[in-house]
Design goal:
The structure holds 2 protein chains of 2 kinds.
Chain A: E1 4-10, E2 13-19, H1 25-32, E3 51-54, E4 57-60, E5 73-75, H2 88-95, H3 105-118, H4 124-130, H5 142-158
Parallel strand pairs in A: 1-5
Antiparallel strand pairs in A: 1-2, 3-4, 3-5
Helix pairs in contact in A: 2-5
Chain B: E1 2-4, H1 9-18, E2 23-26, H2 32-37, E3 45-48, E4 58-60, E5 66-68, H3 74-79, H4 83-86, H5 88-95, H6 100-103, H7 108-114, H8 121-127, E6 131-136, E7 139-144, E8 149-151, E9 154-155, E10 162-168, E11 175-182, E12 193-202, E13 205-214, E14 221-222, H9 224-230, H10 237-250, H11 261-286
Parallel strand pairs in B: 1-3, 2-3
Antiparallel strand pairs in B: 4-5, 5-10, 6-7, 6-10, 8-9, 11-12, 12-13, 13-14
The chains are: A alpha+beta, B alpha+beta.
Bound molecules: flavin-adenine dinucleotide (FAD) and FE2/S2 (inorganic) cluster (2 copies).
Chain lengths: ~160, ~290
Amino acid sequence: MSKMHITTTVNGDDVEFLCDPRETLLDVLRDRLGLTGAKEGCGTGDCGACSVTLDGRLVCSCLVLGAEAEGKRIGTIEGMAKGEDLHPLQKKFIEHAALQCGICTPGILVATEALLKKNPDPSETEVRYWLAGNLCRCTGYDKIIRAVLETAADMREAS
Amino acid sequence: MQYHKPENFEDAVAIAAQAQGLTRFLAGGTDVLVQLRADIAVPDTLVDVKGIGGVKDITRESDGGWRIGIAVSGAEMTEHPDLGRDWPGVVEATDLIGSTQIQGRATMTGNLCNGSPAADAVPAMVAVGMSVSVTGPDGTRRVPVEEIPAGPGRTSLAKGEMISALHIPPRGAAGGDAYLRFIPRTEMDIAVVGCAVNLRLDGDTVAEARVALGAVAPTVLLVADAADALVGTTLDDKALDALAEAASAACKPIDDKRGTVKFRTHVAGVLARRAAKIAYDRARSTRT
Ligand SMILES: Cc1cc2nc3c(=O)[nH]c(=O)nc-3n(C[C@H](O)[C@H](O)[C@H](O)COP(=O)(O)OP(=O)(O)OC[C@H]3O[C@@H](n4cnc5c(N)ncnc54)[C@H](O)[C@@H]3O)c2cc1C
Ligand code: FES
Ligand code: FES
């Protein structure tokens, strides 16, 4: 089967790749571009471990075709820290031990960063609903929710 | 699998009409990709509709109605400043589909054409009297939404035909709509029963009504008896009892691990009551 030639940007960098029409964006990121931050938990849109942004919109990369990335802006967990400088959410997740095995963490960070961009002052209920599609089998969620709410408060104060 | 991304409906329809084997249209992909990856439905031809002009537009028509592009996502509908004021039931039904991530992609068109009896947006679309433009090799026709589903996983669209736009009628004065579903969890689950009610008031009296049920039959049900139970009433207890009875009587549900026949039949009545009250209150609050 002939491969498709796709031109896109990932975390601000111009990227080109060849992919099979059936390949998902998640497979492309992990297997062709070496960006293994996004994880495959389910492959069916249920767990959110593969969360990325597509033109700024939070999506499951397991439910996007690589071919659909043509001409788009992709944002992944690899673009979150600025060099060695962790994003406030990343720092707070470490401080609160809002992760254990860490499989869900890249997806949850990408998802919550998107939330705080849209709504800098979310309620606990809003954070919980926003993350309904991000499953975590380790933490019991509470530490994640606390970390997000505290980061939001800190970021509001800092701005 | 061949991936196509046509730039207009003529090309999209031509590709679909000439395609051999299984053809799918790709809107948000939240059904297509799940089925592709699970080897349930691996298309030979995949027609991505998102390159076609205007498919992301939400437009108010000159008569006050709305035209929704076939690739408009649930999130885009929720974020629209005016659509949800006119049609809160349609927007809340679509907003119930999946998580934040799914909302970023899933469309009403895909929800309708996937053909799930439990699709959340579909009862709301039927209750408010939406129609769709169906474009095929012979041109475009308008079809009421309730004529599209033909059974679980099936639509009445012929080979080479696709939906090219969704149409919501003008809201007009003193109208309200609402959608409720029952799921065992609070988020991320498939409706055991869904119910949408749309009505218009004359004073405090219901002048017109439409009631639609999802997940209680092979396709969405438009229940005329349930609507009749409301018309001419002020939604008193007697009217609500009659509504619930008519809604339950219309159910032909399946029995599965998610809900027994008895449970689904009962819940249809309960949801109809509650949705009718919400629609009524909304209609009263918009009355001028
Ligand atoms: C995790 C998860 C949770 C979900 N939760 C819900 C839920 O709570 N409620 C619910 O109802 N659904 C749910 N779904 C199912 C799905 O998200 C919805 O049905 C969604 O609306 C499908 O829209 P789409 O744009 O992604 O469709 P796609 O997957 O792009 O397409 C679906 C079908 O529609 C056809 N189609 C698309 N566009 C056209 C067109 N223009 N003309 C003709 N045919 C067309 C395609 O050929 C395909 O058969 C969920 C899915 C996932 C993965
Ligand atoms: S891997 Fe994409 S949602 Fe689970
Ligand atoms: S930390 Fe293990 S799944 Fe969340």
